[in-house]
Amino acid sequence: MKVQLIRKTEVARDIVSLEFADPAGAALPAFSAGAHIDVMPADGFVRQYSLCNDPRETHRYVLGVLREPCSRGGSTAMHALREGALLDISEPRNHFPLALDAAHSILLAGGIGVTPILCMAEGLAHARASFELHYCTREPERAAFRERFAAPHLKPHSRLYFDTAPATGRLDLERVLAAPAADRHVYVCGPAGFIDFVLDAARRLGWHSENVHREYFGAPAANAAAHDSDGPFQVRLASSGRVVDVAATQTIAGALEKAGIAIATSCEQGVCGTCLTRVLEGEPDHRDVYLTDEERAANDQLLPCCSRSKSPLLVLDL
Predict the structure, then answer these.
(1) What's the EC number here (predicted)?
(2) For the chain, N or C: smaller number of CB within 10 Å?
């Protein structure tokens, strides 16, 4: 759908807030805390950005976008947008939802990962739910939306940390995650290293994986790197029996597209879950950051935008 950029504001060093609305003033599709949209800021670019405004709002979508020094073009194009610009977006999708029955929620954000976490905090605060929010950045100048954390409904729940502060003022994960329970949930978003730091601590402290939720903004370098040992394999479509060859240098999604078989993709890094596909036979070689360890172990689904096969043949529910 088409939206218009009605307000662009610098909210931290290298971070802008972009506020979009329907050009005719109509209500936008509803969204839930943790949702994201696909944005097409320029020809050839499709990027995912989390919504960070109050999920009760229907008159606008607000994004926070970091200018990435190693941008593939998406963040540079977003930062170049001017107020009044029209662009295409998708309706909101949510692969990072809140557990609405939680007795207590622990929200952890690193850097620009604050965007979905802030939306979650807004939703929890207005629902009068029990939660706490911990936001880590390198320095105060890089902390986005600081004025929102000072609002009366968020301030009592929020704590900000900076790498420039003394050690005593840093995030103490051992304390924050000290009390795992079946009705308590943890949510983390940010750079891959920050997420892995939190996930490792949660495992060590006894949190069940089903109670720890994460959303990556990009695949870690190890996942995105080329694998010299990659070899060819085949994919069979269950509906037609057609077999497609996947070369060592191709993704499954790429091989299918070349064969004239279109599947929905978005991030192409195994992050967003758009292309999640059921596996009926064969053993996937998972290279995504979307599935949990338990979901990977089940070997009954994969992300064809990045994952491959350990077996000569994969039968997919396509």
Answers:
(1) 1.-.-.-
(2) N
Longest dimension (CA), the chain: 62
Q: What is the C-alpha to C-alpha distance for residues 64 and 55, in angstroms, rounded to an integer? A: 15
Q: Of 3-7, 184-188, 204-208, 220-224, give the lowest mean pLDDT range.
A: 220-224
Backbone φ, ψ for residue 196 (5° rounding): -60, -35
**Residues 283, 242: contact at Cβ < 8 Å?**
no
Which domains are delineated in the chain? 2-89 (2.40.30.10), 104-216 (3.40.50.80), 227-316 (3.10.20.30)
Q: 144-177: string of b/e by CB count within 10 Å (b at 16+)? A: bbbebbeeeebeebbebbbeeeeeeeebebeebb
* CB-based contacts of 179, cutoff 8 Å, min separation 6: none
Are 57 and 31 in contact by the 8 Å Cβ rule? The answer is no
User: Can you give the pLDDT at residue 224?
Assistant: 44
